[in-house]
Every structure is written in structure tokens, then in C-alpha cells.
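Table 4 source record.
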Amino acid sequence: MAYLLSIVSFFRDLPIVVKIVWLFVLFLSLIIIVLLLYLTILRHRLRKHEISRLKYIKEYKESVVNFLYAEEENSEISDAQKSIIKQLKSGLIFLQK
């Protein structure tokens, strides 16, 4: 406690310019700490977004391959292809939101 009081009394005895510089340094330090926290949160969110994006890409590739191999000999769209089209449309609408 006495150490803290000695620091406070030392700060009070400093010239006004030095006090302003120290307050500026403390202000910049606080800004740097806040920005570091923000960047860590942002990195975490971007990693989660990238993981989900890769998951959707994998699902769409599988659906497209299934769609191409589900083709029958006639030129009409099969029931399996119709269900894949519905899945892709609902997935695209989900991703756009």
C-alpha cells in the first residue's frame, strides 16, 4: 500500500508535460489491449466460418456428383435428382441469409 502511495505522490510531483505523456501512453496501451482482444475474437469467428464453409463445399460436391450419377437413360429428371435439386436450393437460400 505504501508503495502505491509513493507512486501516486511521485506522479503528482512530475511536470504537467510528463503527466500528459504518461496519460497518453496509458491510453495507447489500453487501445492496444482492446484491439488485441478484438482480433482474437475475430480470428476465432473466422476459423469457425471457414470450417462451416468447407463443410458446405464438401456437401455440395457430394450432391453434384450424386446428381450426375443419378441420371437415367431418358432425358427426364429422376426423383433422386429432384430431391438433390431441392436440397441444393434450400442450402443456397440458407447460405445467402
